Amino acid sequence: MSEDIVKIKGTSLGLQLSFAPEASFEEVRENLRQKLESGTTFFLRGTLVLIPRDVFMGSERDELQHLFHEYGLICRTQKPETEQAKQPEAKATVPPAPQPAVPPASQPEELKPQEMVVVNKTLRGGQEIRTKSSVLVCGNVNPGAQIIAGGSIDIRGTCRGMVHAGAYGDSTAFIIADHLMPTQIRISNLIARSPDEMEKTDRAERASIKDGQIVIEPIERQDKTI
């Protein structure tokens, strides 16, 4: 049952989590910790994570929020769909006011919620994604396509285009793809190209900055789908 304890759904704002009804809080917490420690790229640094408000007690929700905070993510609780449906229609005419859980002055800049761009298609030649946040692509990035992201980039497919993570100076950003064969790869202010011949592998590959240069290495994905 371990693979189904936590289910993850990508949205335009970030990641929405749901939990197996029979799972205890301890099982959910440990399953999430294992995913976070393994470096699974559902949880990109700075991503907004939404958890159901009606699943755990307040202290348990606080513990999950603290867990995500340790790994540089933002965790927010989400109202049940039935509760959202009961809200008066008149409220739609009132501009919604932002309600941060922590005063902006006390929240570190790198931990402020930011939108994660989720692309549920293959990027073809000539198409471009440009954003200050992280990017998740559920498809391929074909030659001639490019992604320029302020955060990290996760491609659930083959990357043959140009990818630039940490485009605004974040040297901790990284790029992951099931098959990483870009025409050009950039992280922060560093540039590299894929070698003409790469060893074939069934494992995903991760590019990151180590010792002042871009290094590409195989990794294990724990989750195959969102």
UniProtKB/TrEMBL annotation:
Compositional bias of kind Basic and acidic residues: 80-89
Domain Septum formation inhibitor MinC N-terminal: 6-74
Gene3D superfamilies hit by this protein: 2.160.20.70, 3.30.160.540
Any GO BP annotation: regulation of cell septum assembly
Statement: the UniProt record of this protein carries the keyword Lipid biosynthesis: no
UniProt-annotated stretches for the region Disordered: 80-109
Taxonomic superkingdom: Bacteria
Bias (Pro residues) ranges: 95-106
Keywords: Cell cycle, Cell division, Septation
Pfam family, one: MinC_N
Domain Septum formation inhibitor MinC C-terminal stretches: 118-217
Physiological role: Cell division inhibitor that blocks the formation of polar Z ring septums. Rapidly oscillates between the poles of the cell to destabilize FtsZ filaments that have formed before they mature into polar Z rings. Prevents FtsZ polymerization.
Similarity section: Belongs to the MinC family.
Subunit structure: Interacts with MinD and FtsZ.
Name of this protein: Probable septum site-determining protein MinC
Species this chain originates from: Selenomonas ruminantium
